[in-house]
Amino acid sequence: MKTLQILLTLMALIFLISCSPGNNTSQNNQDVNFNKISTSGSIDQTAANQAKEKVSRHDSVTAVNAVNTDKKLIIAFEIEHNKRFQLADIGKKIQKEMEKKFSGHKVEVSTDKRLVFDISKLEERIARNDISSKNLKKEVNRLIKLMKDKT
């Protein structure tokens, strides 16, 4: 009986120590992964760069990608793994912020990893001047359609 009591006390101590709030392993906000796209090219990406900076200020965001046309802005971001349960709330909050800040654009926000990847590739093409304005609009429309597709 005495050994059982000692064992339970020891297990309780280990549990309490491992769950202490001082053991913070979350990422620092300065480690957000995003690249600014040059605005000196033929396709102006000022709105996308501003959106990336604004979204990257959120504590739970780990990576953000964004592309804009003259009327549309698409943003895709990743969040910390331990914040995945709050994904819908974070997405809605960022959507509202971006719609308020970029009222001249139709803003679409997504947390889908596939869209993060696709927008990243699109950003690279814009940086290399490997895409025309017309093709950018087509690609943005395709990505928006993917965002809304619920398969």
Walk me through what this model shows.
This protein has a single domain (30-148), classed as 2-Layer Sandwich (Alpha-Beta Plaits). It is 49% helix and 14% strand. It contains five helices and three strands, in the order ααββαβαα. It has a three-stranded mixed sheet, sandwiched between helices. Helix 4 packs antiparallel against helix 5 (133-148). The termini are far apart.
Helix content: 40-55%
Mean pLDDT: 84
Low-confidence stretches: 25-29
- Order of SSEs: HHEEHEHH
Shape by Cα distribution = elongated
What is the terminal separation in angstroms? 57 Å
Q: Do you know the CATH architecture?
A: 2-Layer Sandwich
Tell me the number of helical segments per DSSP (H or I, 4 or more residues long).
5
Give the CATH class.
Answer: Alpha Beta
Number of domains: 1
Largest sheet: 3 strands, mixed
Q: What would you say about this model in short?
A:
By secondary structure, the chain is of the alpha+beta class. It is built from five helices and three strands; from the N terminus they run ααββαβαα.
Helix-strand layout with pairing:
Elements: H1 2-18, H2 46-56, E1 61-68, E2 72-79, H3 87-101, E3 106-110, H4 113-127, H5 133-148
Parallel strand pairs: 2-3
Antiparallel strand pairs: 1-2
